[in-house]
């Protein structure tokens, strides 16, 4: 049995990795995402069981205590956190993953020093990398969490000579790392580079605007995978290396997708201080003034426009998510379809706070997947659409991205709702979105504003449609 055990563990790892790959593949479509999550979870369960069978595991009691505590905290947190707060939760979990990887690197390095043994050079190098990536991920994720949660201001935080100071810290880290490679028993230097990695994480995130935090969280997710992979090299665990690499690769791919959807390079996201995450009122349905005028509509008029249209496109946004209006929207759509109206949903890649956010919310309301259209598929159809109903979306429907070369969002792909025959926008006010840019859509001749909470406004539309 003992002779078979190492081979059996490696075979179990192979099965687990295979399930990870299939799970990631299934996550590529909303229709199969739940199944993909399940497959990946089964793979992780197999990996954990196989690892616990390793003869080098000596303290099962503490491991099981950790598993129970972590499982309880994770289950309660995932159950209670709203979908609108999912980016914060992901950011927090990223940070904990980075901290765990850094602690593994520190612990393994400490084990050699406690035994008065000189760690092999490859172990020292991977431990230093684990400390750097894990430390930056940990503190950077905590700052991102704080900005999204509103604990910290979403505005970029800068100070004089910030970039030279960051470069100096990085040089100090590299110098300390080289020194540790040749003199590993110098504990103050090792603790010094651990501290520098934590400071670098803070300084990496604070100058980034709150509106870009979802992109930063995606990037930090990639970092957490790389940190896990580095930890795998430290403890010589093949599964940890592969799983970390998968997370690192998928995280950077998601980051690139989000940047492409905003038509902004990653360097602009990281260093331009774009988007404060705080809105300022320009005008509201009541309160606030502006030289521009808008056309308003009441629920009765809106219901008549929707009920007597041949085709309607629903454009959900973050406002719908915050109001938890997806079930009311589904009810409205069911009633419109009962009147013979063709209804589709237009999904922008970065609508909400993360890619797939709207898909998940609409799936929760049992919206059929065939009704969900990507931006590239739905944009050519807007000119033949009678009514585009925008629910809480802002930057992703702003025509300035197409028309105003001076706009900071110029070139960003948008849902071209202004090309529809009529556009109804449900929004609390005319406040700007994350980009801090006024939306010219609100003032166009074919646009009518229905001011109010998404859930309340849609409920009133449902009530009026019933009267048709």
UniProtKB/TrEMBL annotation:
Membrane-protein topology: Multi-pass membrane protein
Protein name in the entry: NAD(P) transhydrogenase subunit beta
Enzyme Commission number(s): 7.1.1.1
UniProt record similarity statement: Belongs to the PNT beta subunit family.
Protein's job: The transhydrogenation between NADH and NADP is coupled to respiration and ATP hydrolysis and functions as a proton pump across the membrane.
Boundaries of every NADP transhydrogenase beta-like domain copy: 10-463
Class in the EC hierarchy, top level: translocase
Keyword terms, alphabetized: Cell inner membrane, Cell membrane, Membrane, NAD, NADP, Translocase, Transmembrane, Transmembrane helix
Catalytic activity: NAD(+) + NADPH + H(+)(in) = NADH + NADP(+) + H(+)(out)
Entry-linked Pfam families: PNTB
Main location: membrane
Compartment(s) where it occurs, according to its Swiss-Prot or TrEMBL record: Cell inner membrane
Entry GO MF terms: NADP binding; proton-translocating NAD(P)+ transhydrogenase activity
Species per Swiss-Prot/TrEMBL record: Lyngbya aestuarii BL J
Membrane-crossing residue ranges in chain numbering: 6-24, 36-54, 60-79, 91-113, 125-146, 167-185, 191-208, 215-234, 240-259
GO CC entries: plasma membrane
């Amino acid at each position: 049995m003992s002779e078979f055990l190492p081979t059996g563990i490696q075979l179990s790892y192979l099965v687990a990795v295979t399930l990870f790959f299939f799970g990631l593949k299934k996550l590529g479509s909303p229709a199969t995402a739940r199944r993909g999550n399940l497959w990946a979870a089964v793979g992780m369960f197999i990996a954990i069981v196989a690892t616990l069978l390793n003869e080098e595991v000596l303290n099962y009691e503490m491991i099981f205590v950790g598993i129970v505590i972590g499982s309880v905290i994770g289950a309660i947190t995932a159950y209670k956190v709203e979908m609108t707060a999912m980016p914060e939760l992901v950011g927090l979990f990223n940070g904990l993953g980075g901290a765990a990887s850094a602690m593994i690197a520190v612990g393994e390095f400490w084990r050699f020093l406690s035994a008065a043994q000189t760690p092999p050079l490859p172990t020292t190098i991977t431990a230093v990398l684990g400390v750097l990536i894990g430390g930056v991920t940990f503190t950077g994720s905590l700052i991102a969490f704080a900005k999204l949660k509103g604990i910290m201001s979403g505005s970029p935080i800068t100070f004089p000579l910030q970039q030279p100071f960051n470069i100096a810290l990085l040089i100090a880290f590299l110098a300390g790392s080289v020194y540790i490679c040749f003199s590993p028993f110098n504990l103050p230097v090792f603790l010094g580079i651990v501290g520098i990695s934590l400071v670098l994480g803070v300084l990496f995130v604070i100058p980034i605007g709150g509106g870009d935090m979802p992109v930063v969280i995606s990037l930090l997710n990639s970092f957490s995978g790389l940190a896990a992979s580095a930890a795998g090299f430290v403890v010589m665990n093949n599964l940890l290396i592969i799983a970390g690499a998968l997370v690192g690769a998928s995280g950077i791919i998601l980051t690139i997708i989000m940047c492409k959807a905003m038509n902004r390079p990653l360097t602009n996201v990281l260093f331009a201080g774009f988007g404060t995450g705080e809105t300022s009122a320009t005008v509201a349905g009541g309160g606030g003034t502006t030289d521009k005028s808008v056309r308003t509509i009441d629920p009765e008029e809106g219901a008549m426009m929707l009920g007597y249209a041949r085709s309607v496109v629903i454009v959900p946004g973050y406002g719908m998510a915050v109001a938890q209006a997806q079930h009311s929207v589904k009810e409205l759509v069911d009633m419109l379809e009962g009147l013979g109206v063709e209804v589709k949903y237009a999904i922008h890649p970065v609508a909400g706070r993360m890619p797939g956010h709207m898909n998940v919310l609409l799936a929760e309301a049992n919206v059929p997947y065939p009704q969900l259209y990507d931006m590239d598929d739905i944009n050519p159809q807007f000119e033949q659409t009678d009514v585009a109903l925008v629910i809480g979306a802002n930057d992703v429907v702003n025509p300035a991205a197409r028309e105003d070369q001076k706009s900071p969002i110029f070139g960003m792909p948008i849902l071209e709702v202004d090309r529809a025959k009529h556009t109804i926008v449900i929004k609390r006010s005319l406040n700007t979105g994350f980009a801090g840019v006024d939306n010219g859509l609100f003032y166009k001749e074919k646009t009518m504003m229905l001011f109010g909470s998404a859930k309340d406004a849609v409920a009133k539309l449902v009530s009026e449609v019933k009267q048709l």
